[in-house]
Specification:
72 residues; mainly alpha
Length: 72
């Protein structure tokens, strides 16, 4: 779900670089995830334990109903 270049990932990375309120362990993992797939998986599992984050980032699908007909 997370990958380098993803908007949510970029937000996490920015927060890790600039915020003093992020847990230091998570901050190190986020910074390491730039070059490490294992660190990226660790960040993903830590971040997505929060139900609010899951709701914000999760994909939703909408159904469009198109009514066609005979044109006169």
């Amino acid at each position: 779900m997370l990958h380098v270049g993803n908007v949510f990932y970029d937000t996490l990375l920015c927060s890790a670089v600039h915020s003093s309120e992020i847990d230091q362990g998570l901050k190190k993992a986020i910074l390491a995830s730039i070059t490490s797939d294992d660190a990226l998986k660790a960040v993903e599992s830590a971040i997505f334990q929060d139900k609010l984050i899951n709701a914000l980032v999760g994909t939703t699908r909408a159904v469009d109903i198109v009514g066609g007909g005979v044109k006169a």
